[in-house]
Amino acid sequence: MIRPTKKFRQLYLDTLAGLIDFTQIDYLVVSHTEPDHSGLIKDILQRSPQITLVGTKVAIQFLEDFLHQPFARMVVKNGDRLNLGNGHDLEFVAAPNLHWPDTMLTYDHKTQVLYTCDVFGLHFCDDQLYDENLALINADYQLYYDCLMGPNARSVLAALKRMGDLPPYRTIATGHGPLLHHHISELVGRYRDWSQAQAKAETMVALFYAADYGYGDELAQAIAHGIAKTGVAVDLIDLKATDPQEVIEVVGSASGIVIGMPPQSVANAALSTLLAAVNSKQVVGLFESGGGDDESVYPLRNKFQEIGVREAFAPILIKETPGNAIYQLCDEAGTDLGQWLTRDRTVKQMKALDNELDKALGRLSGGLYIITAEKGGVSSAMLASWVSQASTKPLGLSIAVAKDRAIESFMHVGDRFILNVLEEGNYQPLMRHFLKRFAPGADRFTGIKTYPAANGSPILAEALAYLECEVVSRMECPDHWIVYSTVDAGRVSKAEGLTAVHHRKVGNHY
Ligand SMILES: Cc1cc2nc3c(=O)[nH]c(=O)nc-3n(C[C@H](O)[C@H](O)[C@H](O)COP(=O)(O)O)c2cc1C
After folding, report:
1. Is 350 within the bounds of a domain?
2. CATH number, residue 415
3. Most buried of 46, 279, 310, 384, CB within 10 angstroms?
């Protein structure tokens, strides 16, 4: 199969041109916007400007940011259909988070083929087009599930439930590996079994919101992202499309509940079911959707207080069109909630280390630094000591950033930041300031003298030196990202100053 990525650009376009006249294409169904499947959409649009791109609301938003040009679009929801004529009636199945936020499946009623993009795929290739030989693909099928689908087991179960409403499918056409035809029920069944086992074992937050209302979708996604950074699963549930029994079941297995206020017209029934199902061991967080007709957060907040449910973050109020600052606040609020739910696990991990090993590892030392970053008008900062030079040509350094740090969102490939070096004998005030527990969305620079670097990030006036960095790559470790960055510029404020050194006693903490 030829993949629509830049690497296979010419091969893909030539093959397509041999099969179809570009001016005759009416629709391009975008199953999801992951670059290995969507990287050549711009090239197709150049040859076929008449095309209508068909995708979920989130996919179309991503495409706007990615294509930077006008295009005809059709936003589709679960159950929507697109009749192409000749019996080819396409039906769409929403499958968010499998393994991209905007994934959807497409069922052709005529051919009974279900196009699933990544779902049910595997990284396997031989001369057979179909799944005749199950033994040959077993291991790769499971590996692919474990890596790409397992982390969103609950979303897999939700998608399987929606797939259950379709007429029988004869073939599953995935975007990776063989087409599934001979063993469909066995292979789909494995997804169900694995996901059920996974979902039972994990800590989960049920995030209720009203889809397609105000900014509910975007705000919910930002909070879900923040929660997921802590390794906690999130089940996103549309309050408008769920029945009371489903609400009761999800709340029953959740450790935390987040609610985006729905419009008043749907609020009563949905919220009273929710309230009846919640118990005092759970934590809760509320946010407005900004739809103009939101149910107020305060009566609901009072009711949760009466039941004795702990509030994970203060209600998020939407007074104007949300910008990056609100989305950052949502992300950080989600992380706070996730950290609260995983606090026992964190303490257990810290205590788990053998005493001698812990002390020996504690002899590894590093300097003391403050990372500062600005992106899209929002800033962040963090104290770091797991920092090391990593290359000379080009000049580069590595930093280990815990997966649930607020600043993690500012350290993706292409992002720029400053590494401020703290000075021996003069680091305490800055260290103390940046180690404070900041509320979600708080300005971390209040009372701190800064000036802007060429890359836009704040330089700390009290730092001994600073380095302007750009993230080039990231390596995933179990609980940290190793962020490798090149260094473009730097300056020392005092020629004789020494870097503050951090001597530790134990290895299981910084
Ligand atoms: C001495 C010291 C060194 C630290 N070094 C790192 C580090 O290298 N990487 C990291 O992710 N966190 C490090 N931390 C933890 C963060 O600085 C701190 O917990 C964080 O600012 C709070 O999380 P938040 O910014 O996500 O709210 C260090 C903490 C201390 C006390």
Report:
1. no
2. 2.30.110.10
3. 384
What is the CA 125 to chain-centroid distance, rounded? 29
N-to-C CA span, the chain: 47
Q: Give residue 383 CA to ligand 1 midpoint distance, Å.
A: 5
- Among 323, 345, 367, the domain boundary falls at 345
pTM: 0.74
Q: Answer whether 445 contacts ligand 1 (Cβ < 6 A).
A: no
CATH number of domain containing 76: 3.60.15.10
User: Burial letters for 342-378: b for 16+ Cβ neighbours within 10 Å, e otherwise?
Assistant: beeeeeeeeeebeeeebeeebeeebbbbbbbbbbeeb
Among protein residues, the one with the nearest Cα to ligand 1's atom 1 is 510
Show the domain range for 241. 202-345
| Domain annotation covers residue 246 | yes
- Name the residue with the closest Cα to ligand 1, atom 7: 384
* Residue in this structure with the two tokens 């080009």, named with its chain if needed: 394
Last residue of a domain, which of 140, 169, 200?
200
Element (H, E) at 74: strand 72-75
pLDDT of the chain, 510 residues: tens digit per residue: 456 667 789 999 999 999 999 999 999 999 999 988 888 999 999 999 999 999 999 899 999 988 999 999 999 999 999 999 999 999 999 999 898 889 999 999 999 999 999 999 999 999 999 999 999 999 999 999 998 998 888 889 989 999 999 999 999 999 999 999 999 999 999 999 999 998 888 899 999 999 889 999 999 999 999 999 999 988 888 888 788 888 898 899 899 999 999 998 887 788 899 999 999 999 999 999 999 999 899 999 999 999 999 999 999 999 999 999 999 999 999 999 999 999 987 777 777 677 889 899 999 999 999 999 999 999 999 999 999 999 999 999 999 999 999 999 999 999 999 999 999 999 999 999 999 999 999 999 999 999 999 989 999 999 999 999 999 999 999 999 999 999 999 999 988 899 999 999 888 889
Task: Using most ligand atoms within 8 A of CB, pick from 313, 380, 383, 407 the residue to mutate for ligand 1.
Answer: 383
> How much distance in Å is there from the Cα of 408 to the middle of ligand 1?
11
Say how many domains are in the chain: 3
Distance CA 52, CA 27 (A): 5
Separation of CA 384 and ligand 1 centre (Å)? 5
Instruction: Kindly state the tokens that stand for 100.
Output: 């991209």
How many helices and strands, by DSSP H and E, does the chain display? Answer: 15, 24
Helix, strand, or coil (residue 89): strand
SS3 296: coil
Whether residue 27 sits in one domain with residue 88: yes
Indicate whether 314 belongs to any domain: yes
Q: State if residue 472 touches ligand 1 by the CB under 6 angstroms criterion.
A: no
